[in-house]
Write a structure and sequence with these properties.
By secondary structure, the protein is α+β, with helices and mostly antiparallel strands. It has five helices and eight strands. 38% of the residues lie in helices and 16% in strands. The chain has a three-stranded mixed beta sheet with strand order 3-8-7, with helices on one face. A three-stranded antiparallel beta sheet has the order 4-6-5. A two-stranded antiparallel sheet has the order 1-2.
Length: 175
Amino acid sequence: AHWHEPTQCRVVTYKEVPDRVAFVADLATNWIRLRRTPAKHRKVAIILANYPDKDGRIANGVGYDTPASTIAILDAMKDAGYTVGNTPSNGNDLIHRLSLTRRTHELGEVRLLLEEYLKHFALLPAANRAEITARWGAPETDPFVREGAFHLAVNLYGNAAVAIQPARGYNIDPK
């Protein structure tokens, strides 16, 4: 920013970037709003790992029993006053439900309307939309779009959602 003659050095200062300041302010506002929201009205998502993309590896955590821990987290949330519906009785049941939802994408009750997605998609710069469409195809041709909506691999338990991380591959083929 300037030369400091007595110490014979350059003084480095920071300059704010307005959109980043606004982002941090919005983030802080949302954290405050969340803190003031009673637990029973909060919505929580637990996203489980999905790599490599195989049924036997869903929720894989090296040295960590992710399915059992997810059940324990949901139970702890219930005890803390969160609205958590009927959860699977054990980790194996959780993984079975997630695997079934992941394979069919029909049984899950969570959908993203194609119309809503397209509204957000239209806000992207044209170059980004073109790259996405060139790589992944038109949104309406996605294999998990049925009856005007994306069917998502998510299971709901009250205000808690347990989902599988989206696959890293192209369309259905993860390779």
